[in-house]
Every structure is written in C-alpha cells, then in structure tokens.
Hints:
CATH class: Alpha Beta
Helix content: 25-40%
Number of strands: 7
Mean pLDDT: 84
Strand content: 25-35%
Strand order of the largest sheet: 1-2-3-7-6-5-4
Amino acid sequence: MKLASIPGITSVSLRSVADTTAELLAAITRIAEHDPTLEAAAVQAAEAAHRDRAGLLAVVTHPAADPGILVGGVITASQAEELRNHLLHASTPELREVTEAKTAKGCSVLIVEPILMAGAQLQAVVTDTAPATRATMFTLHSPTGRGWLDLAGVAGRLLSTLEFTARSP
C-alpha cells in the first residue's frame, strides 16, 4: 500500500519498541507541552503497533488540536467484511457513528467512531476495489479530544490518498 505525504502527519520508525516509543515521544513533545496522558498513550501505541505488526505509526497534528496517534495495518478482506457486517448491524450504545464512503480511487471505507470515557477515537477500514481481497485498518486516537474534528480531517486527507500497490507474483 502507498500513502502520500500529508502536512500534519509525522511517521515514526517501527524498528523496535524502544525506537518507536522514543521517536513517538519526541514527536509529541515537540508539539505539546509535557502531558502524562500523551506520554502514556505514546507508550501504549508503540507497544500495540509492534504487537499487532502495524505498517504505520504516526503523530497527527493540527494547529487547533492536541496531537493524535494514528496506527495502520493490513488486515484480510474477510476480516474487513466480518467487521463491516457486525458494525452495520450492531445496535450498541458504544458506537457514536458508523459511516460508509468511497475514496477517489473507488475503495470502500467504513468509518467507526466509538464513544470513549475520555478523548476521542475513530477506526477506518479501507477495502481494495473489486475483487476485494486486501484491506487496511487505521485507528486514530486523541487522548484529550481537543480539536478532534480537525485531527480527523487531517487523517481523512491521508486515507484518501491510499493506493493498494501491485502484488508480486
């Protein structure tokens, strides 16, 4: 998969948990004052990214928002379809919104915004065009929720550039 370079998105290395944590903390502290909530979120994100074999971990910024953390990785199309069916037919109070859309390249996108006790989060599952055999899942998390709509807009611009690359034989 390929993503364009978007202002407000700063990727960090996924070499090791220690390197990822250090780079993520450095990127966040360049933007925000010392905030233990953001530091804890950075450590958790680094550990989760490595545990889940993420392909992308980035800090998302906007002048009117506290920084957010974006994690992305490949999932199977069948996992994406199961998730889509579950979420579209679930009647659960934990979900604020479930939306379907298409990218400019025709990829299907399912956007889910759960209700959290603190902060804000959304998940987006992007499925390759027909035949839908590949998919990616992105999670954007804002520990504070300040400027959430602006952060979600930056992440949305990134996701709209997603291209599934040609497969190797």
